[in-house]
Every structure is written in structure tokens, then in C-alpha cells.
């Protein structure tokens, strides 16, 4: 799997689903991972995305957008969830995806769903259908239909699901056989700055480097980006959809000079895109603020619901999600 490409599509999926929910007027809620969910994420995680799943499910526009740009790996996860016998429209409240590395570059994605699950009813259905569980440590893994995916319940409000080679490393982390997210202080610190938002994501250094190259486009050729990228430490983004659409991206660097340099490069990229962009795209760029402060690169985008709706139809949007 090409993890970098998948992460780009993952990011766009979550952002657009949240934005479409904003157009539907869904109120903002916090999307936080409980302690069991956090320990089920391996230490070497590249990106975590957490979204209020109710906002997605309540918006036909969000589901339509998600269907068009969802990476194949996540389509498999979501389809498995649908055929597993769980009523995700009512049971699943928050949905998270974590992309992590196993070995050198062997990338895996695991899903985590949180909500109010009626375990007695679910177990009764499993028993009725004569579904046999397999054990991994002390965890019972149940097949999710014919999808090839497995699911296990960490507690009555948290389940982990994914392919065999993704869910087992997640459970190794949760059960203490391998380091988990809580032993990664950089990612934990980043999470603490954003997890009160209805949609948030954190990225490690490699994920941030790839994202910034994509954002810079041709502007990355204006300087020695290969040197600068090593000074990008990590990033977070949030989206809030009360009273319009508000997106905030923060990239951590070790010093003021690096942050200021990245700010200049991004502003150059924005100016280049503005020259060749449509009226809608130019308006979007005008609504974007790029600045730096105390070693942080900060990008903010603010738009009304109608403005963002127009942007989704623009060539710029289609070129980003390809």
C-alpha cells in the first residue's frame, strides 16, 4: 500500500465529510478517544483522524463526497462494518482511523469505533449465526461477514476492526506486547491540543513532510525543500462547522526561522495558484491566512457554507483529491 497517497486521501475524506456536515447544519461535538482506544494504536503511528460519525451519517452530501474519494482500504473497513450486523447509524458515535507502520515501510490502517453498543444483542446475533471467534491473546476476534475483516470489543463502548495483519498489531499494543500510542510523547502532546474538536487529526514527522510537499506544489522547487523538510516535526489540523466552515492547520518546527521560511513558501504557492485559479478558487485563497509564530506554521481557512459548497465543485478541489 502507498501510505502517503492513502493518507492524503484519508485527510481529504475526513475534511470533506466534516465540511459537508457543516452545510447540513450539524452542531459541533467533541471527538475524543477513550483510554482503551488510545492503547490500541501502535506507537509508530503516522496519522490519526477522528470524526464525529453522526455528523457524517446525518448528511447525504457528506456520504456522497465520502463515497467518491474514500481510499480502497477504508472502503473495505466501512463495508465490513456495515455487513457485520451492527447498526452504525445508531450505534457508532465516533469513528477513528489510525495509519501506522509495521517494520520498515509496511503500512497498516486500523479502524476504531466508539458508541453505545448493546453487547448482549450483538453476542446473541453472533451465536444465532454460528459465527466462530478466534483468539488473539485473550481477545475474541469475530469475522465481519465475508469481508475478510475482523472485529473485537475492547469494552461495551469501543471496538477495533480491520484486516488480520492490522488488528493483531493493534491488540499487541493494547495488551502490552508492543509499545502503544501512550509511549509516543510527541503524538500524545499533539493530540492534547486538538481532541476537544468535532474533527481532528495529528500527523507524525513523515506524514507532515509529505503533506507539506503536496501543499507547496511547484513552490517546493523554489528552495532546497529536502533540507527544510527535515525540520518539520509534526502537525495537527481541526475543523469546526458552526457558523460556516473553519479549518486550522498547525505545523511544528524547531525554530522561528524554519516556520517563517515555510510560511513564505506557502504564501508563494498560494499566489501562484491564485494567478491561474478560477474566481471561486481565488476567493478561497483570499479566505486563507498563512502565518508563523514561535516555531509554528499556522494556516487558517474561513468560509461561509455557500462559499465552501462552491469550492467543492472547482477544478482545484478535483485536482487535490485525484
Automatic annotation (TrEMBL):
Residues 1-30 form the signal peptide. The keyword Signal applies. Keywords: Signal. This is DUF2066 domain-containing protein.
Amino acid at each position: 500500500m502507498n501510505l502517503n497517497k492513502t493518507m492524503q486521501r484519508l485527510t481529504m475524506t475526513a475534511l470533506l465529510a466534516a465540511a459537508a456536515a457543516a452545510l447540513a447544519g450539524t452542531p459541533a461535538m467533541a471527538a475524543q478517544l477513550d483510554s482503551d482506544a488510545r492503547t490500541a494504536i501502535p506507537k509508530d503511528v503516522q496519522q490519526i483522524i477522528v470524526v464525529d460519525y453522526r455528523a457524517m451519517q446525518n448528511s447525504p452530501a457528506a456520504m456522497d463526497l465520502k463515497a467518491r474519494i474514500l481510499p480502497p482500504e477504508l472502503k473495505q473497513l466501512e463495508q465490513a462494518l456495515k455487513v457485520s450486523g451492527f447498526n452504525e447509524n445508531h450505534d457508532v458515535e465516533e469513528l477513528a482511523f489510525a495509519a501506522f507502520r509495521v517494520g520498515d515501510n509496511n503500512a497498516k490502517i486500523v479502524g476504531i469505533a466508539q458508541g453505545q453498543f448493546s453487547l448482549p444483542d450483538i453476542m446473541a446475533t453472533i451465536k444465532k449465526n454460528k459465527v466462530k471467534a478466534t483468539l488473539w491473546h485473550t481477545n475474541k476476534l469475530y469475522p465481519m461477514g465475508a469481508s475478510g475483516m475482523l472485529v473485537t470489543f475492547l469494552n461495551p463502548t469501543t471496538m477495533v476492526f480491520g484486516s488480520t495483519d492490522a488488528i493483531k498489531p493493534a491488540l499487541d499494543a493494547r495488551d502490552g506486547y508492543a509499545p502503544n500510542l501512550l509511549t509516543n510523547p510527541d503524538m500524545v502532546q499533539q493530540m492534547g491540543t486538538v481532541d476537544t474538536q468535532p474533527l481532528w487529526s495529528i500527523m507524525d514527522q513523515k506524514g507532515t513532510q509529505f503533506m507539506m510537499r503536496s501543499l507547496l506544489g511547484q513552490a517546493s522547487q523554489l528552495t532546497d525543500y529536502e533540507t527544510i523538510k527535515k525540520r518539520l516535526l509534526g502537525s495537527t489540523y481541526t475543523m469546526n462547522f458552526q457558523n460556516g466552515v473553519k479549518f486550522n492547520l498547525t505545523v511544528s518546527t524547531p525554530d522561528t526561522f524554519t516556520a517563517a521560511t515555510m510560511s513564505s513558501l506557502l504564501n508563494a504557492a498560494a499566489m501562484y495558484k491564485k494567478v491561474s485559479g478560477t474566481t471561486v478558487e481565488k476567493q478561497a485563497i483570499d479566505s486563507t491566512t498563512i502565518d508563523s509564530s514561535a516555531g509554528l506554521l499556522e494556516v487558517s481557512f474561513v468560509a461561509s457554507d455557500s462559499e465552501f459548497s462552491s469550492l467543492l465543485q472547482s477544478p482545484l478541489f478535483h485536482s487535490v483529491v485525484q
